[in-house]
Structures are given as C-alpha cells and as structure tokens.
Design brief:
Blueprint (H helix, E strand, L loop, with lengths): L17 H12 L10 H16 L4 E5 L7 E6 L12 E7 L19 E3 L2 E3 L3 H20 L6 E7 L7 H8 L7 E5 L10 E6 L1 E10 L5 E2 L10 H10 L17 H10 L2 H8 L5 H6 L1 H5 L4 E9 L8 E2 L2 E10 L5 H13 L7 E10 L2 E2 L5 H14 L4 E5 L4 H8 L4 E4 L14 E3 L1 H17 L9
Parallel strand pairs: 3-6, 3-7, 7-17, 8-16
Antiparallel strand pairs: 1-2, 2-6, 4-5, 5-18, 8-15, 9-13, 9-14, 10-12, 11-13
Helix pairs in contact: 3-13, 4-12, 11-13
The structure holds zinc ion (ZN).
Zinc ion binds next to helix 3.
Length: 460
C-alpha cells in the first residue's frame, strides 16, 4: 500500500467526494505545458477552467494578460462571516496551473493527460505540481466562503509560467498594494512519512549563458589542430575555474546555526535521498550534510554544454561552444554582487582571439523566515488541529521567486503542500494520494480561520 495521509491516531483521512475528483480530472486533462508557445492556448484554457469552476462557489475572477507574459488569474473572495472592512486581514493564496512537459509516453503507466486512479492515488501530469495542491488550497477557501464562514478577505493568484520564468506573478505583485498578512502556497512535498513540511527558507538563483567563439567556421583538426584555437577547449577551461565554487562566489554566506543544521540533516538523510533519486554523491555532501550543501552553501551547476559533434566521426576544431549555468545562492548573498563576480570570473584570462558573450541574470535572493513568526505559528496550529501532529520545519534548496519577493515585502509565506516524495514531481507517473485533497482543503480552511486573528500591518 502506498503512503496516504493519516490522522494523529494513524487512521487514514477519508477520500474526497466524487465531485471533487471529477472536477480536478477536468483541470488535469488540459495540457497546460509551461513555456512552449504551442501550448499557450492550453495554458489560457486552464485559467478559464479554473475561473469558471471557482466562480460557481464565490468571488470575482479575472484573467490578466500582458504582451510577453503568460496569462495569470486573480480571484478576489471577500470575507463572508463578517462584513469585509479595513481591519479585515487579507490572505494571499498562490499556485500555478502550468505543468512540466510529460516526457516519453512509454515511461507512463497511463497517459499523462488522462487522469487515472490506482491504489487510491490519482495519476496525471501536474496532479502534484501543482494542480491537485492548488485545487485543495482554493477549495478550502471557497467552501468556507460558500458556507458564510470565511472570516478573512482572500486573493487567489494563479500563474501559468511558474515552471519556466515565474515572471507574471512577480509583475502582478509589484502593482498589487494589498497589505497581505500572509501568503499560503501548496507546492512542496511532505517528508517520506507524509508529514507536511513548512519550508523555512529557499535559496536564491542566478542564471548565466555563455558563448565562446574562436572563428567563422569549424576547421579540419589535421590541417589546423594545435594551430587554431578550439572553442570547446576554451569553454571547458573556463568552466573548470568554477568548480569547486570559488571564494569570490561565496561572498556574503553567513554560517548557519550548527544545531539547527544538524536537526535539518537528521530529518533528511542525504545519502538515502540521493540513493532514492538514483544519483551519485558529490564529495562535499559527505562533509557538510545534505542541507549544508543544498541550503547553507551556494552551488553552481553546468546545466548543459553544446559544441562540436560527439556523435559522428567529425575530426574538427569547433569554432563555437555554448553553456548554460545555474547558480543557487545561500541566505544573505546579494544576487547582483554575485552575478557581477560570476561575470568577471567568466571573462578573466581568456586567450587572445576569443569572442566571449556572457549573459548573467540575477533572478532572486534566498529567503529565510524567522522562527516564531506569529503568522507561521497560526498556520502551524491550524495544521496540528487538522492532521493531529506538527509539520516539520525544513529548508528547501529550490527557488520560488514569488516567495522571495513576498519576503522582501515583509509578508510571511507558508510554503507547504500535500504531495509526497513518491509523487514524482517532473517525472513519469506523477501522482497524488486522493485523500491529500481532503486533508489539504481542511488544513487551508482551518488556517484561514486561525489567520482571522492576525493584526493588519502596513506594508510599503
Ligand atoms: Zn510547482
């Protein structure tokens, strides 16, 4: 039997009503693949479906569009148990309707966009990341609103580019002056025993593209090898300077509290985790532990290299080589300063005759939430009410630009969720336990009730 959600006494939560599953299946059949222009109509269709579904229960829903951005949806659901006025706390709920491409159909047991239930799990692309989680989150607010029991004003933000750029939500937030007391996001997996995780911090991100050119065209490696500058070799030498991450790119890293780091590392055994995903272990992992390297330190990965021809017997000196890099930033590192340091490292010591193009995009800073924040404590006690045990506090090495932006604005964000490590985020046979919907919706309803007591603070 696969992992399901159980209450404090070990009894499984009930499966959701058949109507919820039918509705979510409609949402999942829409092939709203992120980034790909061919799927742009489907991404819009996913928002149209969501708006027409949600407006049957409560609120005003509007699709927003802007040239160059994938569309997003904003729903305003006013408090229904009290009359909404200036002092009513306002809570933001955020999720995304775009999904990763499904990959090879052969790797799926049932088609990616044909939702299928096996073993009380619902399978489809996006069911865990993030459509099923988003459904449960918003269901929790709509059910309260429809029953006349919603004690806070709620804004729902759903974007369709989270898996690629995350730009639309940031752009929307820049212009949205609402003084949110809290933001709730369901887009993070639980621990292996299906205990929800509250993400206490996430790393920042810099993306860099590099093009090395050494000539007009590839040339014969017999006639010119050794005499002509080789773009592939220049690129490889340049990238070799970045591993291990040099001191210039470690500026600003503050040591993490050793006790806290040890507690996090106890909660996730890095060696087991890497074995589960099936990858070899980098040497620094053994010294610093999983969160020592995936949260407390920056990391720099070469995402891809393209140059020359490794498939055929092409005896050439390549004249062009490109690479894409991503760098994750530790808490307290300044994305602009580290981006500038990365650019100068890439440019230094290049041989004469190399044409180098470097494009560095500092995307977001790391974010870390203060332990003991009253908003987080209120949501935590709501989760304890519903699931009968406390969520685990853990950092997350990934980057959520919206959460960083909210952090900069002083809006405490609870990033959690009800997918499990078996949900296969971004992989084949993506799945979600059916009762994640029941428990996820109940936890959101309870959190909104608890947040009604939060004082409204001024944000700039
Ligand atoms: Zn997601």
């Amino acid at each position: 039997m696969r992992e399901r959600f159980v209450d404090g006494s070990g009894t499984p939560f009930p499966d959701p009503p058949a109507e919820w599953v039918r509705e979510l299946e409609e949402f999942l059949r829409i092939e709203s693949v992120s980034g790909d222009p061919a799927h742009a109509p489907a991404r819009r269709a996913a928002l149209e479906w969501f708006a027409s579904w949600a407006s049957r229960y409560a609120g005003g829903w509007e699709i927003c569009e802007e040239p160059g951005l994938s569309p997003w949806l904003v729903g305003r659901v006013p408090a229904s148990s009290v009359s909404s006025r200036d002092g009513t706390p306002h809570v933001l709920l955020y999720g995304h309707a775009d999904v990763q491409p499904p990959g090879s159909p052969d790797s799926w047991q049932s088609p990616a966009f044909e939702p299928t239930i096996r073993d009380s799990w619902l399978h489809a692309r996006g069911v865990a990341d993030d459509k099923g989680n988003l459904y449960a989150l918003v269901r929790g607010a709509l059910d309260l609103a429809a029953a006349g029991r919603l004690p806070v004003d709620v804004t729902v933000l759903v974007d369709t580019d989270e898996e690629t750029t995350g730009e639309a939500a940031l752009r929307h937030l820049e212009r949205d002056p609402t003084p949110y007391v809290a933001c709730l996001v369901y887009d993070a997996p639980t621990t292996a025993d299906a205990t929800p995780v509250f993400v206490v911090g996430a790393r920042g991100l810099i993306v860099a593209d590099l093009v090395v050119r050494t000539g007009k065209a590839d040339v014969h490696s017999g006639l010119y090898g050794g005499a002509a500058l080789n773009a592939a070799q220049v690129l490889v030498a340049t990238l070799a300077r970045l591993n291990p991450v040099p001191d210039a790119l470690r500026k600003g890293v503050a040591p993490q509290d050793a006790g806290q780091l040890a507690r996090w590392n106890d909660a996730t055994d890095g060696l087991t985790e890497l074995e589960r995903v099936g990858v070899a272990v980098a040497p620094q992992m053994r010294d610093q532990g999983f969160y020592g390297v995936t949260f407390a330190s920056p990391s720099l990965d070469i995402n891809g290299i393209a140059t020359g021809d490794a498939a055929q017997e092409a005896m050439i000196v390549p004249c062009e080589a490109v690479a894409r890099l991503s760098m994750r930033l530790a808490p307290h590192q300044d994305p602009a300063a580290i981006g500038a340091a990365l650019e100068s490292l890439l440019r230094e010591e290049q041989p004469d005759g190399v044409q180098l193009e470097v494009r560095v995009r500092p995307t977001s800073a790391a974010v870390q939430f203060a332990p003991g924040d009253p908003v987080v404590a209120a949501v935590r006690s709501a989760f304890v009410d519903v699931i009968g045990r406390a969520p685990r506090d853990l950092p997350n090495g990934a980057t959520v630009p919206l959460v960083s932006a909210l952090g900069a604005r002083g809006v405490p964000t609870v990033l959690t969720g009800f997918s499990t490590p078996d949900s296969n985020f971004h992989g084949p046979d993506e799945g979600l336990p059916l009762n994640a919907l029941t428990v996820g919706a109940a936890a959101c309803s309870r959190a909104l009730e608890r947040l009604a007591a939060m004082p409204v603070t001024d944000v700039g």
